[in-house]
Specification:
The protein is mainly alpha-helical and 348 residues long. It has one domain. The protein is 79% helix and 0% strand. The protein contains 15 helices and no strands. The longest helix has 31 residues. The two termini are 17 Å apart.
């Protein structure tokens, strides 16, 4: 039951990750960099600290006992993860939304899932066990599912975009796109590396009385602090460049409250993906690394389900709908394999 609960918690994180952008659609008369920064302050700063303070016995004591290196390494990985978010945007710019997202998320899932156990030398021992082989199969299926949904996205773009809109994709560049997608996948996976590197901090939290399901919360504080530096500076630079900082002042007070509410809601929901992911990952034992691919796959599943709900696929061919449904089913099946493999651990 612990493994099943862990899987459900990680998938709940995927639901949050795939849904957080919906409140942003309610924001009015704010430039992207403005509402992204406001939402980011909630997701990268306020929510992590509040959740950590509510779920840990003494957050300040955890950081007091941790060494500088133990805290600095997760912050550095968070900084690198922040770079991944920016290069993700470039991947979409050079490859298009469907192809760029499929490649970048696929690489993120692969790097974030497999590199931590490879770094700690766990892959050979994993492949010697049935549980490890089943989990690796689940990861491979996850990547296949991501690729199929990306293929459906490419077909969708071709089917619903007119010639004028296709012509606007003037910066398509396969070589540049693959390069930045590779960088994005590796850098975005640094969040998973940060969690792995932050285990000493998590262990201190447990030693001070924190529940094991909340042991990653102080690590999230550190990782997201690094992400805040990168994204914060970028948004501020864009606000200066586009002269959009005035968006925060020169609109009606009622609208400012409205925008703050929905931007804050979006940012908080975004952070909840890691709150639930952290709890679920801690319940999956030594194969908790597989939780990363579950988070990525469930994010794609729920975001595509929202797309179907909001009729974003309206007007595409039935074959394309069947392809995206097939991709989503494979992603769901991959989660089942990863959960099965984790369950088998107790019998080995």
């Amino acid at each position: 039951m612990g493994v099943l609960t862990g899987l459900l918690l990680v998938m709940t994180g995927g639901l949050a990750s795939g849904s957080f952008y919906i409140p942003f659609n309610k924001v009015k008369k704010w430039a992207w960099e403005v509402y992204w920064l406001v939402g980011g302050i909630f997701s990268w700063l306020i929510a992590p600290w509040v959740i950590a303070w509510l779920t840990l016995p003494s957050l300040s004591e955890i950081f007091r006992q941790a060494s500088l290196d133990q805290m600095l390494i997760p912050v550095v990985f968070g900084f690198l993860w922040g770079i991944g978010g920016l290069t993700f945007g470039l991947a979409l710019r050079y490859l298009g939304i469907a192809l760029g997202m499929a490649i970048a998320l696929g690489l993120t899932a692969a790097f974030g899932t497999l590199i931590p156990p490879a770094f700690y030398g766990q892959l050979p021992s994993m492949m010697a066990l049935l549980s490890g082989k089943v989990i690796i199969l689940g990861v491979v299926l996850c990547l296949v599912g991501i690729g199929i949904t990306g293929w459906a996205g490419i077909r969708k773009d071709k089917e619903i975009l007119d010639d004028q809109k296709r012509a606007s994709v003037k910066e398509f560049n396969l070589k540049k796109g693959l390069l930045v997608a590779l960088i994005s996948g590796l850098m975005n996976a640094c969040f998973a590396f940060g969690i792995a590197a932050g285990k000493p901090v998590a262990e201190i939290a447990v030693s001070l009385g924190a529940s094991s399901v909340h042991q990653n919360n102080p690590v999230f504080v550190l990782i997201l602090l690094g992400g805040l530096v990168v994204n914060g500076f970028y948004c501020i630079w864009m606000m200066i460049k586009n002269k959009s900082a005035s968006d925060l002042l020169f609109i009606r007070k009622k609208l400012i409250f409205h925008n703050l509410l929905f931007s804050g809601l979006a940012g908080t929901i975004w952070f909840l993906q890691f709150f639930f992911y952290g709890m679920g990952e801690s319940m999956m034992g030594k194969y908790g690394f597989a939780a990363w691919s579950i988070l990525m796959s469930s994010t794609i599943v729920f975001s595509n389900l929202w797309g179907l709900y909001f009729k974003e696929w309206k007007g595409v061919a039935k074959k394309t709908i069947l392809i995206v449904i097939a991709g989503l089913l494979i992603l769901i099946i991959s989660t089942g394999f990863i959960g099965w493999g984790t369950y088998l651990v107790r019998f080995e």
